[in-house]
Each structure stands twice: as C-alpha cells, then as structure tokens.
Amino acid sequence: MELKDKVIQLREERHLTRQALHQRIVEIVGKDAISYKTLQRIESGRFDGRLTSLYQLCLGLDVPLKDFLEEITRDNIKEYNRWDGQEETYLYHDTARAEIISGAKMPFLALKLNLGPQAKTKLEQDPKQLGDYLKWIYVLKGKIFCVVGDKRSLLKTGACASFDSTLPHYFENAETNKAQCLIIQHPRHL
Question: Are 9 and 43 in contact (CB under 8 A)?
Fold first, then answer.
C-alpha cells in the first residue's frame, strides 16, 4: 500500500476531512506542524514526507508509527541520506529538541539532541519484547546527564557512552548553557 492511500484510508475511517486532520495536527504539535499544503501533497502522492511528517500524521490520526508503517511499501517513503541542515525535528518541549539526521531506510536512528539550560527529555524506554536495543551518545557541546534506570552519569564535551535502551532513560542538561549531543539507536525503533 502506498503512503497516500494509507493516510486517506485512516483519515476516512476516522471521519475526518483533510482540514480537520490538519487542525488536529496543529493543536497537538503547534507552530512546528506540517503545513496544510504538505498534507495535500502527501495525499496526492506528490510527496512522501519525512519521518517527522509521518510522525505528525500518526499523532493526528491517533495511530502508532509502527502500525502506520506496517502496510506501507518502504520504497515509497522518502529517503534522506545526507544531513544538510534541513533536518527533521522531534520536540520534547520548547527547550529540548532532537533533529533526526538519518534516512528513513537506515537500520539505525541518528539524532542530534539540543538541550537548553536546565532542559531534559521525556522518559523513554524501547520495547524489550521487540528485541535488544542499544543507544550510543556523544556530547558535542556542554555537559549532559545520561540517566539510565537508577544510574546517573555526567558526560562532558567529547565524552561518549552506550547503554541498553530497553531500560528507562532520559537526558538532562543541568547547566546554564546549551548542550548538544549525537545519539545513535540500533536497531531503529520509531
């Protein structure tokens, strides 16, 4: 099934017009929501969207991304192989955002995490029933606490760590300056 067909099918099953779906996305995501024009282009098949566009569609349609992608032909999802400053963004909140810098077809997920002063991500935990997951973090700038289970480790610029991401974890900047790190998750879960 192509992406455009899946979006239309789910939207119609929920008795939503395209405008109503877009409004839902705006209410959930706010100013970083995909544009109505992007939604039109996805539904017409002229644009297959980026990963964050698909994520926003899932939020608006109230369906898990994994389930959403299950029936879609992976060849129809836009591949994004190089990072050129046009990254996709996942917002934890105003002062914590992760920019997705790996393509949708990659077997891993690469993120650039930006944490403002005193910011932290939400608690995350990859599903153990789906397999073993590993995250690797490398601090580009500042100091970041990597909290995994009950272990809290301070990582400074140039430091790295890896951990089993099926354990509950989050990242925190306890400093007054911005912090930035790269995170690689393998295998990809999103």
Answer: no
Phi and psi at 83, nearest 5°, equal: -95, 120
Q: How far is CA 166 from CA 42, 91, 131, in A?
A: 33, 21, 9
Half-sphere exposure for 165 (CA within 13 Å, toward CB)? 23
Q: Compute the mean pLDDT over every residue in the chain, rounded to the nearest whole number.
A: 83
Summarize pLDDT for 90-118 with one digit per residue, the tens: 677 778 888 877 766 677 888 889 999 99
Intrachain domains 3-76 and 88-186 with the same fold? no
Structure token pair of residue 144: 């970041």
Distances (CA, A) of 59 to 26, 64, 83, 115, 165: 10, 8, 25, 23, 23
Six token digits for residue 42: 């996805």
Q: Which CATH superfamily is domain 3-76 in?
A: lambda repressor-like DNA-binding domains (1.10.260.40)
Phi/psi for 11 (5° steps) reads: -65, -45
CA distance 91 to 94: 7
